[in-house]
Design goal:
This protein is α+β, with helices and mostly antiparallel strands and about 375 residues long. It has eleven helices and 18 strands. The strands form five sheets. The chain has a six-stranded mixed beta sheet with strand order 1-2-6-3-7-16, sandwiched between helices. The chain has a four-stranded antiparallel beta sheet with strand order 4-5-18-17, covered by helices on one side. A four-stranded antiparallel beta sheet has the order 11-13-9-14.
Length: about 375
Amino acid sequence: MSPDARARIEADTGLTHEDAIARVLRRVRPWIEAETPSGNERALAALSERIEEELHALGATCDAFLTSGLGRTLSAVFPGREPALEPIVILGHIDTVHPVGTLERQPFDVVDGRATGPGIFDMKAGIALMVEALALLIGRGTRPRRTVRMLVTCDEEIGSHASRALIREAAEGAAAALVPEPSLPDGSAKTRRKGVSTYRMTISGRAAHAGVDPERAVSATAELAHQILAVLALADPAQGTTVNIGLVEGGTATNTVPAAARAAIDVRFVTPAEGERVAAALATLPARLPGAVVRVELTETRPPLERTDGVVRLYEHARTQAEALGMSLGEGATGGGSDGSLIATYGLPVLDGLGPRGGGAHAVDEHILIDDLPFRLALYTRLLDTL
């Protein structure tokens, strides 16, 4: 960050560089130290309740939605100063991929310009920055230009199955959505995401003794070997379509021809048409061995986030606000999915990947770069003030 940009950001927020960092870290630290792996209903509900208290203190009207076995999704509404305008949505999640106990070997810490801890990059710091931006506006005696609908979900990392109806409800009548998921490595926002579909392939054959009467058998693993090659052939790198088989299971003993085998299939695609092409092909895969049965079941799907004209306009607005702060905000694409892709299906322009710079998502070195926090705080505040 140049001295000019630092001066502009400090003037814009009314906070020194160090104070802005401290303010964000004070808010996010207890969120990190509350470990919230997907499916830990009690832990996720407890953190959701804490965040609700913080948002209520800022003047939000809050509603909570409990889902047995998953946790608690929080909906908060901040009234805007121009209530006739369509609202904007802020979309985030507090569930992480890290099991309870990760904090013992990966504690919250600030070392060499990095703040570490499970879930800090994906995506608790992004949510904390949005809350701080709202707090900054309210502290100035003003409010966001538009009414803000903030949705903090509890099951994004495992497919958002319980949250989808709430995401659809948040999208109704809204103008746009901001998603503070992790940025790209260089800090760029995400204006495109690949769609993601996962499938479970099940092969049924017929078991027999491998040495006594193998001719009676129909090998499920042999059939699966044929199917793996057929499935991988559905990839089309030129179209951005990738296919991965990341989990394979089969058989019961070395001396038994297996009657069952399974595989998990991951498909990533840029356009809905490509996703549909692969889905149709998977649904009609023929068995290669007489007597074998092949079944393919869709287990999860997220649509792609496409770079529409509305997305470009939203990005250009954000880029202009960043330039006013002496900073650049690039854009790019990613192969990972998010709830931003889901809310885009309801016709909203979405700007995703607005979270702070960092790395190690889902890994032992998950971290954010703390020098990026003042810029993000200033940018979020400007977006809420001007959109």
